[in-house]
Every structure is written in C-alpha cells, then in structure tokens.
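Course assignment 3, question 2. Fill in each field.
Student: A.L.
Task: Predict the tertiary structure for the chain below.
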Amino acid sequence: MDTVSSIIVAGLVFVVIFASGYWLSRAGKPYSVIVLTAHKLISLAAVVLLVIVMIRSNRVAALSAVELIAGVVTGLFLLALMATGGLLSVDRQMPAIVLKLHQIAPYLTLVAAAVTLYLLQSRG
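Answer field:
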C-alpha cells in the first residue's frame, strides 16, 4: 500500500473509531462486548497505522518539525483516548473528569489526525 492509500485508510479508520464510540455512548452500559472490542481493536489499529504512515513518509523525505509534532500530538491524543476509554469500560464508577475527557478528546484527536494526514498528504 503506498503512502497516499495509507493516509486515506488512516482517515477512514478515524471515522470508524468516532462512529463506533458514538454508538457505544448512545447504547449505554453494559456495553456490547462485540462493539466495545471492535472499537478498542480499531483504535489500536489507528495508532499502528499512524506510526506506519509516519515512518513511510519519513523514508520518502525527512519529516518536517511541524509534521512530526502533529503526528506526536495525534498519537498522544489517541493514547489519552485509549486510557480514558479503558477506565470507562470497567465496572467501577470513574470520576466525572474521566468521562468528560473521553467526550472532548475525540474531537481534538479528529482535528489533530486531519491536520497530520493533510500535512503528510500534501508533502512535496
């Protein structure tokens, strides 16, 4: 898969994560095991795919500081989402801040991912 195709797939993966998370939030607890597992696995795939796209782009030409920072910020947002999502999926009651962070972070992640993927796509 070339870099442009990887970038398109990465964008679609972020949309699927967002949609499945929205579905989970509307369904409420207890979460569907199938949907929750798919949501977690797709999120993990997004992190891996982002790393692959960044590495491939860096092989073609060294990443600029802006591209690197955008990728790192996107990765950190994804990891924050995974951490807060993991906390929310347990049976114990979590502090309200965990839920609020998990509700806000997807939008920040989506913007950061869009910026990162745009920067990587528009290289050259």
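Instructor remarks: The helical segments are 3-27, 33-60, 65-88, 96-121. The chain has one domain: 3-121.
Grade: pending
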